[in-house]
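In this supplementary section we document a worked example of the pipeline. Step one takes a protein sequence of length 162 as its only input; no multiple sequence alignment statistics are reported here. Step two produces a three-dimensional model, which step three serialises into structure tokens for compact storage. The input and output of this example are shown verbatim.
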Amino acid sequence: MTDCKKTVTINPKQAILFQVEYVNYAWGYQHNGFFIDNEGYILSYKNPENWNWPDKSLSLTGQQVRANLESCIKTGEKIAAEELIKNAGYIKNIALSKVTALKNVAADAGSLKYICYQYSGSSEIYTGYIIKEEGNFTCENLNFFSKKVTTWLKRIKDTLNK
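The serialised model returned by step three reads:
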């Protein structure tokens, strides 16, 4: 009998795996969130200066990611290795799935995005994939694992906000 479980490995050169980001321009500029790095550390930011925003395809260069990480602070929180590996294993499936069309549902609520990243070592490009967006506009990735990852990231966000 063989074990059918896939072994998921995390590329040690991939600095970030997930990001939760809130942006609101309506009531004064607000920009905050966190990254989860390849070791499971949670790095937060609040209204960082000189932020590198991704392009239209949600891509950032390795240099841009490193610069953004310099604007972050370590929260002291770390995701357990098994939990990180499990959720990182869903990134490939999420990246291959379609996202629903943006639907305008509010005004002045800002934008809360749940994002996962794939990394290309050859080009040193991080490509982000929307898992879910909430706020003024909503959309969600149609992959089966998206709801699980969103729930996981929301739990982390709620823990950090306590």
